[in-house]
Amino acid sequence: MKRWLSVLLVCSLVFSLSWTAFAQKTCTCAHTPVIYIRGFGGALFDWETSDQIYPPQKADFETAMPKIVGGSLALLGGIYPLFGTLGMQAAAQLLGRAACDAQGNPLIPSGPERRSLPAQDTHGQYREGIADYAFRYDWRLDPLIAAQELHTFVQHICRLTGHAQVSVVCHSMGSVVFASYLYLYGADEIDKAVCLAPAFGGVSIMGSLLSGEAVIADKADELTLFLQSLPGLTDARLKTLVRFCGKWGVFRFVLHWLQNALDSQFDRVFRACLRPTFVTMPGLWSFVSEQYYERAKAFSFGDDVQYAALIRKLDRYHYGVQAHLTEILRTAQQSGMQLSIVSGYGISSLPLSRTHTQQSDFLITTACASLGAICAPFGQMLPKSHVQAVEDGHVHVSADSLVDASACAFPDQTWFIRGLMHFDFPYRNETFVRWLLEQPTQPTVQTNPDYPQFMQQDADVLRPVSE
Ligand SMILES: [Zn+2]
Ligand SMILES: [Zn+2]
Q1: pLDDT one-digit tens code per residue, 115-128
Q2: Which ligand gives the minimal distance to the CA of 160?
Q3: Nearest CA-CA partner of 288 in 360, 228, 372, 201
Q4: pTM for this one?
Q5: How do the domains of the chain map onto residue ranges?
Q6: What's 450's DSSP letter?
Q7: CA of 405 to the centre of ligand 2 (A)
Q8: Residue 162: nearest ligand to its CA?
């Protein structure tokens, strides 16, 4: 009898202890914990050895340097096969450890810091600048896998902070992961979402690259415009040099010469080096926009059966998430999630595709990031005869006549910043992003005259675009 009694006592003790440990924590503050979902290209570490897989380190560059120098000399001397061979060897030394196999699985899995969950409740302190916590993921992976890890992270932050919901700020590829999260789990646990320079519509050059359509020979004028549009090009002598090279045919000569090297080696390098390593990264395929997707798949994989499993993976993201993006975001919004999209413009897209250069933030075209804005080709303005595409009682054409935002999926919740480089979005916008996160109801481009639809980045200040 005594033994039973002691068992009962121990049981009740354990029960009460665990009850204290797992008691639901609740926080009633107005600040929903904010998670930052970063873009493509974060550092990756070997799961087992913790060695850095990506980006390549100084020692890797030292090993690859003879190949880089030799390859450049071969290119200069017009010995293209040697240039191709040395180029591939250098690429393997620098980036080979980040490669994926034919099924799209990393040869060296990354972690475990990627999966470490925060232990401190620090919500409300903006420790990550525009967020309280940063979510890290392996950008090589299928975004739907990264989205599963994000789900675990979101639930952990909810438990840690005592909030039923979190807010997210995503940059670039982070929006791809977030859209995949909404596709899998819905928006019940999401209060506000701010998408900065989102990549969910694709990236301008990836489609043309993976379709084998990158053309540079006749892009001399576009290259001049592109270089002139870069906000970093402030030095007067550099500006003069760019103008000189454009005017006197230097760019034309260099591009023709590079095109010859490309024509001679692209297929070989693509099949022997790029395809078995990087083209098999499912994450990169989220950068291929709708209009290129099937073409890029046909060029990259043909009928080769060894890629069948990978293609199923890619299709699941493309046709599940990317093709239904607007619907997914609209459903989330209808269930109460606040959504703000911030896109860049006023910088030329990379002059690599067959189409003319477009308005962009350097990497992502404005039309893609804003989910449908009508933009003047770079270097031009919308024609004087242009009539706003959708009449909704607001003016949605920019004062500088470059963008008509009325055609966007969310015309009243999409902001545009002129002259802000893609990679600067999370670092130059803190005040604006925090303002978006602090609005009790859905903010729109009409809510605050300091933050109208079209803004210009001057140093660290955002001003309304006036001309
Ligand atoms: Zn709180
Ligand atoms: Zn409107």
Answers
A1: 678 999 999 999 88
A2: 1
A3: 201
A4: 0.89
A5: 30-38+121-467
A6: T
A7: 9
A8: 1
